[in-house]
Amino acid sequence: MLKKAKKTYGFIIAIAALISILIIAIRPNENTGFHNKPLTNNNSTADLIWNKFEIALEANQIDSLISYSLDTIKCSELQTQNPDSNEYYNARFIFENHIDQLKHLDILSTQERHIYMDDSIIRVIYPIKCMDAEEDRYDLIFMFVRVDDKYLFSGMILT
Q: Average model confidence (pLDDT) for the chain?
């Protein structure tokens, strides 16, 4: 009888361990897990990072924006007086001289947006309605990359 009880107890422990492992494996990690759909939790890491950046962007807080950014950022749609310029610019130059072009819209905080995040990037996507664009819309995308233990703004593109 004791042998049968030990086998049954061992079987129950093994099943409980297997179920625990499965639950941990399939549970999404809001901080660093891969999301193949927009994040909807307002308390997610990506939302917090974007909200802090968005507030600084709308308030033209240059020093804060620089601290949240890489030294060089991509801005593919920037129109400068230099016709030979490329898509990458000094962050301070962008924030001090072309912040309105970077924002692209007067107010971002009231616009529909989708935030995507994985272990190394965050993408904040604003679908913009425009009759002159293909499919009557285009996307304004703000990009962040992970550097060490934080995400830094790496640029803005239009697609």
A: 75
